[in-house]
Amino acid sequence: MIALRQNIAQMAGYVPGFQPDDVASYIKLNTNENPYPPSPQVIQAIATEVGEGLRRYPDAASRLAREEAGRLYGFDPSWIIMANGSDEVLNNLIRAFAGEGEEIAYIHPSYSYYGTLAEVQGAKVRTFGLTESFEPEGIPEHYDGKLLFLTNPNAPLGFTFSQNYIGDLAGRLSGMLVVDEAYVDFAEETSLELVRALDNVVVTRTFSKSYSLAGMRLGLAIARPEVIAALNKIRDHYNLDRLAQAAATAALHDQAYFLDCVAKIKETRAWFTAELKRIGYRVIPSSGNYVFASPPDRDGTRVYQGLYDRKILVRHFTDPKLSHGLRITIGTKEEMERTIQALIEIGPGQ
Ligand SMILES: *Cc1c(COP(=O)(O)O)cnc(C)c1O
């Protein structure tokens, strides 16, 4: 018998979105990847890095990438930490702020991985629900949990919280407010000003969605230098390899390419949303690179299966609050046209 820690033995573990072996035979709209390739400057930067220099350790501070991010977002690099995927920095925030038996919280539905990370740490997990109009339910006037994770834009639903609401919420917490802005590049507003103004707000970002770099594992966080210094103590000292650092710096630098991709996705999102409504689906207006939509008969499983049979992969959640619909990533216009065609074939149900 192996003597695992209790919490590890008991926890279920996170199940990431399905990645099929024969990925090329699918229209893959299930993990919010970007349909466009990374910037040519990113490919070039990685290629330049491949060579004899790989025998040397990378820069432990990811200095060039942090400087590039600092210029772009208007922060001194001491306010920025690079991460091996934003999942890494979410994990390290829990390790920095929530000890064993202490509480963290997040909104349900949102990104359930926060809960998994907290379970590994032995922290307690609390969730706050949402009203019909997408307001968090039941957060005490003064909440003393160590961390509250707010996914903004919300995933999988796609709506956003106002900056007024987020600022007020931060003032009600004795712990940290982590605004997970994984999808903010597809939205209109960011909480970066709140990071500057309030001492308990952290913003996390990822390169996996808007920068087309899910395969590189890159993210970052922006927070007060004291918070960044704590996170630096916890992370692997060489958390970003040389290729990842080169990719991050080039991706942030090539804003023209990035803005063009984001604009195309937003345009396709508007078109796809209108088409879904035209065929009778309920669609939540989305600020992400996905939409959450429900068929007329509110049977998400039926439509998931119908799309799967036509080699179109989307995300269906069995959670009772989400099982009536599907989260569909915005791909290219052509992929979304084929998806609408498939949904018409599948029909409204009943
Ligand atoms: C994709 C996603 C992440 C993880 O991003 P990585 O950088 O790929 O680890 C974090 N939060 C949310 C809400 C996401 O959707």
Radius of gyration: 20 Å
In the CATH hierarchy, what is the superfamily of the largest domain? Type I PLP-dependent aspartate aminotransferase-like (Major domain)
CATH class of the largest domain: Alpha Beta
Largest beta sheet: strand ordering: 2-8-7-6-5-3-4
The biggest beta sheet reads: 7 strands, mixed
Taken together, the total number of domains comes to: 2
Strand content: 5-15%
Helix content: 25-40%
Bound molecules: pyridoxal-5'-phosphate
Question: At the third CATH level, what is the topology name of the largest domain?
Answer: Aspartate Aminotransferase, domain 2
Q: What general form does the structure show?
A: globular
Runs with pLDDT <50, length 5+? none
CATH architecture term of the largest domain: 3-Layer(aba) Sandwich
Number of strands: 12
In N-to-C order, the SSE pattern is HEHHEHEHEEHEHEEHHHEEHEEH
Total helical segments: 12
- Distance from first to last alpha carbon: 52 Å
Catalytic activity: L-histidinol phosphate + 2-oxoglutarate = 3-(imidazol-4-yl)-2-oxopropyl phosphate + L-glutamate
Enzyme class: transferase
GO molecular function, one term: histidinol-phosphate transaminase activity
Modified residues (N6-(pyridoxal phosphate)lysine): 209
